[in-house]
């Protein structure tokens, strides 16, 4: 299933102020892989995720999604394949009601009203938020906003799911529900997070980013139990491993 592949080849990115956020990133994610991306603040995790559907374009190198190389011309088609959940849900929620926000993507796909309603209700149910459908997003708690932002992406039924700190604003019960939800998503998923226990629970593979480069890439169980590697990148062992 080539349409589920994500590949970065020598990808570098420099912000307008001269900050080099990515410096020759290389990796390949294949169909069905669950990959965690970890690193210190400012390591380049969010910048990397925003290249996956063209919110940012590489300064040099190539990003390939499925069989499409990311360009300004292919960006629209790639955004149908890759759903991104941003770290700040306010960056995604802009419609008058929760229902309208979750319906926005399916409507833009040209779906009929009945199909859109079915898709929205299913997505909100998956994040235990159907009761919020008539509420204005700006009246929601941070955790509720995060859940709705996830629903708005899931409603698009993307081939590839990319999430930036998805559990940051969630209470323990909602966090556990998110983990269950992520385990049901059978396509490729990439999760950037400081919640290393979530990465250990959900992702078989882990990529460590440090100062814009890939520092390590391997099985999560090995990467996230390597105390020296984690400490060198301003990270700590997952809490579940600290208790052992």
Structure description:
- With 244 residues, this protein is an alpha/beta fold.
- The chain has one domain (2-242): Rossmann fold.
- The chain is 35% helix and 24% strand.
- The protein contains ten helices and ten strands.
- It has helices spanning 45-50, 75-81, 98-108, 113-126, 142-154, 172-184, 196-202, 220-223, 227-232, 239-242; strands spanning 6-14, 20-29, 34-38, 60-65, 68-69, 82-85, 160-164, 188-192, 205-210, 213-219.
How do you describe this structure in short?
With 244 residues, this protein is an alpha/beta fold. It has helices spanning 45-50, 75-81, 98-108, 113-126, 142-154, 172-184, 196-202, 220-223, 227-232, 239-242, and strands spanning 6-14, 20-29, 34-38, 60-65, 68-69, 82-85, 160-164, 188-192, 205-210, 213-219. The strands form 2 sheets. A 6-stranded mixed beta sheet has the order 6-7-8-3-9-10. A 4-stranded antiparallel beta sheet has the order 2-1-4-5, with no helix packed on it.
């Amino acid at each position: 299933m080539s349409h589920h592949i994500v590949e970065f080849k020598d990808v570098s990115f420099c912000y307008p102020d001269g900050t080099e956020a990515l410096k020759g990133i290389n990796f390949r994610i294949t169909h069905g892989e669950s990959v965690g991306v970890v690193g210190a603040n400012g390591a380049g995790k969010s910048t990397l995720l925003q290249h996956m559907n063209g919110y940012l374009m590489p300064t040099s190198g190539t990003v390939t999604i499925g069989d499409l190389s990311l360009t300004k011309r292919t960006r629209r088609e790639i955004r149908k394949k890759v759903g991104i959940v941003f770290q700040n849900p306010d960056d995604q929620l802009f419609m008058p009601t929760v229902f309208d926000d979750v319906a926005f993507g399916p409507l833009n796909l040209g779906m009929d009203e009945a199909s859109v309603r079915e898709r929205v209700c299913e997505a909100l149910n998956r994040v235990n938020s159907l009761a919020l459908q008539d509420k204005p997003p700006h009246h929601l708690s941070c955790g509720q906003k995060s859940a709705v932002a996830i629903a708005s992406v899931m409603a698009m039924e993307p081939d590839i799911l990319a999430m930036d700190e998805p559990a940051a604003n969630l209470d323990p019960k909602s966090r556990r529900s998110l983990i269950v939800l992520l385990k049901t998503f059978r396509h490729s998923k990439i999760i950037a997070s400081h919640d290393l226990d979530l990465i250990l629970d959900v992702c078989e593979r882990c990529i460590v980013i440090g100062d814009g480069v890939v520092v390590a890439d391997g099985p999560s169980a090995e990467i996230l139990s390597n105390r020296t590697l984690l400490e060198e990148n301003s990270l700590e062992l997952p809490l579940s491993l600290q208790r052992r």
